[in-house]
Amino acid sequence: MRRWLSWALGIALGAALVHVAAVALLPREIMRRVFAGFAAQGPPNQFVHPPLATHETRAVVRPSPDLAYSAVLFDVGEHPLRVIVPLTAPYTSLSGFATNTDNFFALNDQTAGADPIDVVIVGPSTKRAGLAGLRLIESPSDRGVLLVRRVVPSAEAFPAIDAIRQRARVETR
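Above: the chain's sequence. Below: its structure in token form.
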């Protein structure tokens, strides 16, 4: 009986360690790879607008072929960032992801309240002086990823949507 109990406790302890490692380390490793992938496409605090996804191109896990994605690696450790995203019909959304993969905010054309989406991203280390009256989004980390998704209803609609998405910008405050 005692031997069986020792084995059971050992297995439970091992399972708990694997669980804690997966919960604590796996999200950060995922975001490290995401950061490296986006860093290869462009510098931090600047939007990247990849072409529409196909079965051969996969910058985003399980991309939808009827969505145009734009992304920016952000770093608000020194300064807040103003993010301006023009809306396109029939749907546009802006989401923020922290370094642990948490989705800390999402706005879409229905909830944004205005065209364009105009927000200021701040993190734990960001200086907050001069930000009164602005729509602040607080990231739980100083670094992360912003992802814009736009529905592209047809191939013919993509050039007009692409021209508008190219106007998305990030400004240091």
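Residues 1-173 form a domain with the Immunoglobulin-like fold (CATH 2.60.40.1610).
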